UniProtKB/TrEMBL annotation:
Pfam families: SNase. InterPro entries: SNase_OB-fold_sf (IPR035437), Staphylococal_nuclease_OB-fold (IPR016071). It comes from Roseibium algicola. The keyword Signal applies. Residues 1-27 form the signal peptide. Residues 28-157 form the TNase-like domain. The keyword Transcription regulation does not apply. This is TNase-like domain-containing protein. Keywords: Plasmid, Signal.
Length: 172
């Protein structure tokens, strides 16, 4: 009888390790193939979970910017850029918070380890998000500055984002 109790204890311990430990480990990060929603968010295909890139903003999907008086679809371009850079890859995201129903705020990485948000900032496809004028992720400011100084992507144009109007000459 004691042997039976010991087996039950071991089986229960293994059950707990297999059920509880992975759930805790997975609570901090998620990964999978993604389907792009807009220039700064996508859905993890396997789970259906929506992830918004933490610390950046991009033009809304239907938004337009203006370059030398010519309107162009900055939102569609940003979504296209994100699609081009993530399609077919397993993307790993570290959870930074919650953005509402079924949305996770995450720092996301390509298989080579590069930070998707940093890449978007460097190529002018996003801006570093701010809360009351302060960068949410301080290190992202330098990547935005690179794109701005080279007039890349949206920094070649005039556009509105998060209630502010930005111009090619915008400085902060």
């Amino acid at each position: 009888m004691a042997l039976m109790s010991r087996k039950k204890c071991i089986a229960f311990g293994i059950f707990l390790l297999n059920v509880l430990l992975p759930a805790g480990a997975q609570a901090d990060s998620i990964e999978g193939k993604v389907s792009v929603i807009d220039g700064s968010s996508f859905q993890i295909v396997e789970s259906g979970l929506t992830v918004k890139l933490f610390g950046v903003s991009a033009c809304a999907l239907t938004q337009r910017a203006h370059y030398q008086g010519i309107s162009w679809p900055c939102g569609a371009v940003a979504a296209g850029w994100l699609t081009e850079n993530t399609l077919g890859y397993t993307i790993r995201c570290i959870k930074e918070g919650s953005g509402g129903y079924a949305t996770v705020l995450g720092r996301c990485f390509l298989p080579d380890g590069s930070d998707v948000a940093k890449k978007a900032l460097t190529e002018g496809m996003a801006i570093a998000a701010r809360a009351e004028g302060t960068l949410i992720v301080p290190e992202y400011g330098s990547f935005e500055k690179i794109a701005r100084s080279k007039s890349l992507g949206i920094w070649s144009s005039t556009f509105k984002l998060d209630g502010h109007t930005y111009r090619k000459s915008f400085t902060q």
